[in-house]
Amino acid sequence: MQYDTVIHGGTVVTPYETFRADVGIAEGRIAAVAERLNGGERRIDAGGRLVLPGGIEAHCHIAQESSSGVMTADDYYSGSVSAAFGGNSCFVPFAAQHRGQSIADVIATYDGRAAPKSVIDYSYHLIISDPTPAVLEELPGVFQRGITSFKVFMTYDLMNIGDGGMLDILTVAKTHGALTMVHAENNEMVKWMNRRFAAAGLTAPKYHALSRPELAEEEAINRAVSLAKLVDAALFIVHVSTRGGAEIVRREKLAGTKLFAETCPQYLALTRSDLDRPGMEGAKYICSPPLRDQETQEGLWQHIRSGTFESVSSDHAPYRADASGKFLNGMDAPYPKIANGMPGIAMRLPYLFSEGVAKGRITLGDFVKLSSSNAAHVFGLDRKGAIAPGFDADIAIWNPEETRKVTLDMQHDNMDYTPFEGNEITGWPELVMNRGRIVVEKGTLKGQAGDGRFMARKPVDTGAMPGHRAVEFKIAAEFGQEIAP
Ligand SMILES: [Zn+2]
User: Fold this and answer.
1) How far is the CA of 200 from the centre of ligand 1 (A)?
2) Which of 221, 354, 385, 454 could staple 373 via S-S, CB 3.0–4.6 A?
């Protein structure tokens, strides 16, 4: 066997094993994993290093306008470069529909943004904000193209599609095997809280965290799960930020609901007190759902360890702390007029490794699941997320002992701050490969704009999750009326 590259002497990690092995790569794929492999046009010494599946970032906002029209600071070049420096070989940003826009137009727009620029492989989740009958008719075509996940919002007036809209999308998704993702917060609770704070003249960034109560997330997660159960559709809850929300996910999974979920490093690393920094510094920590507290952090780690979450995703939403981003509405804008979101695509995996693996909260196998293999499975990237013959040679070589203090220039994004500034991190990716091409090596970018390819994804696999069949549909069927989706 002729190999283009052999990675030798490293420790390969899969979700269930950690073992010494060489990895042989031919034509962009992993061709062999064996105790010892000779040959290889290029031999990479991975002695003392971990050889992991390249990270898959399944929640990030790249070259995307917010519903109020603010463009992210990162495009598909800087976003993918930053992702690669953070140990990722593939990412799945959002292609966002704005009200009135056709889905064909959305996809064409994002193809134009991604194809010429991405240095790593990519796909999109489609955000649907306007599920008109015409839009619902377009969804099967999107699915055919390999975009097999649709995201909806229960909050933000310009995005919230209402419970009926959600049922429509869940039904189409179920019919085609697509996965519906949901941002779950109760819109009316948030708006009511905003009115209370506005009436009292409380508009500083710190009130943002209080305006979006934990109960708003818990209620909406419960409602989203109920809607999905009515039509027996698969559901993915993004960025779970509360213990109550995580408990619902856990309980429903035990009950066999077709349910997946994630949390994000910011909910583990930061608290609502970060929004109370001097001046307008707190604006940098505005995101939704908002940061919580230390008890929540501990609770979320327990859920990470015990398998409530498939993945830990960055929710990278890069809005600079200037008039192009956070402060589009002025440097002293009230919190509801400050752009929501934080950067972190390069920090997701180093943070998870350092706080998770190095501190003994999770195992190396858990890290592989949470960073890569679960996302590959849930989102239908069937050639990614594993170090095994036949899979894409998407590999990250980590130095588990390297320590660094986090700075902005390590992020390689277009941002003017990192919320992880000054963190002491143990464990960094030294080399990142995508389909056998080296993208980043020892702190140097080797990949080029346009190297990444669009990845058509498979339908969602709900495996052994039995789901539910609502009793009313069963009874209707006994009446001879098959109205179930
Ligand atoms: Zn997001």
Assistant:
1) 30
2) 385
Q: What is the pLDDT of residues 357-415, one digit of tens each?
A: 999 999 999 999 999 999 999 999 999 999 999 999 999 999 999 999 999 999 999 99
Residue 289 preceded by cis peptide, ω within 30: yes
Q: How far is the CA of 107 from the centre of ligand 1 (A)?
A: 18
Phi-psi region of 40 (alpha: psi -120 to 50; beta: other; left: phi over 0): left
Neighbours of ion ligand 1 (CB under 5 A): 315
CA dihedral 186, 188, 191, 197 (to 10 degrees): -90
- What tokens appear for 465 in the block? 């999750």
Report residue 69's pLDDT band, with 50, 70 and 90 as the boundaries. confident
**306 CA distance to ligand 1 middle (Å):** 24
Give Cα separations from 416 to 161, 256, 278, 320 (angstroms). 33, 44, 18, 6
| pLDDT tens track for 103-159 | 999 999 999 999 999 999 999 999 999 999 999 999 999 999 999 999 999 999 889
End-to-end CA distance of the chain: 50
For residues 83 and 118, the answer to whether their CB atoms sit within 8 Å is no
CA 138 to ligand 1 center in whole angstroms: 23
> Which residues, 6+ apart, have CB-to-CB distance to 368 below 8 Å?
13, 14, 15, 52, 53
